[in-house]
Automatic annotation (TrEMBL):
This is UPF0056 membrane protein. GO terms for cellular component: plasma membrane. It is found in: Cell membrane. It is a multi-pass membrane protein. It comes from Ancylomarina euxinus. The keyword Membrane applies.
Length: 210
């Protein structure tokens, strides 16, 4: 249960579905309630597939490219920390490659937005993927894997609930409320990224005999 809570908290914070709510509202403002629910479902489903694929195939990618787990943790930690800083400074959409002008263009030009830009890169970005690859290498027992997979499923379902209720969330919290929550989450995300880096550095020092 402890690992489930830890991994769910990390995944939810890094993906930050609340930070994606304004983007979702902008992209679906001309859609009906039923259509928005469908887009929310397929977005969460795409995220689930991406996360499961990353978790189960990540170790083979590391082996193929000759990347060590510690190197992945440091790189992933840097990516996650920069995402956290983007949340703190209110530049999350720009960090994910989604400028306001592009959002407006996407409303008129994209027929299917559940995969991109919503699932990739807004939710299942490099930070999330690298975290799951690191989890796959670090937690190898059956119970640990089930806990992590459970957190992946619950995280994906939370994305569905957040996006499906996005218009209500915006009305209830407003832009200032969402920004405040994003900044709080950003602080947590920075801590997660730094923790990955610290663990990797300590492991390297231990291997070196320090």
């Amino acid at each position: 249960m402890e690992l489930f809570i830890l991994s769910f908290g990390a995944l939810f914070s890094i993906m930050n579905p609340l930070g994606t709510v304004p983007i979702f509202v902008g992209l679906t403002q001309n859609n009906s309630k039923k259509e928005r629910a469908g887009i929310a479902f397929w977005t969460s489903f795409n995220v689930l597939i991406i996360l499961l694929f990353s978790f189960f195939t990540g170790k083979y990618l590391l082996s193929f490219f000759g990347i060590s787990l510690n190197s992945l943790k440091i790189a992933g930690g840097l990516i996650i920390a920069t995402s956290g800083f983007a949340l703190l400074t209110g530049k999350f959409t720009e960090h994910k490659g989604m400028k306001k002008s592009r959002v407006k263009d996407d409303i008129h030009t994209r027929s299917e937005i559940s995969l991109t830009p919503l699932a990739i890169p807004m939710l299942a970005g490099p930070g999330t993927i690298s975290l799951l690859i690191a989890y796959n290498q670090e937690y190898t027992s059956m119970i640990d894997c089930i806990s992590i997979l459970g957190s992946v499923v619950v995280s994906s379902f939370s994305i569905y609930l957040s996006l499906k209720s996005s218009h209500y969330i915006v009305k209830m919290l407003g832009a200032s409320g969402i920004n405040a929550l994003s900044r709080i989450i950003g602080f947590i995300v920075i801590a997660i990224g730094i923790e990955l880096i610290v663990v990797a550095v300590l492991s390297i020092l231990k291997l070196a005999g320090f």
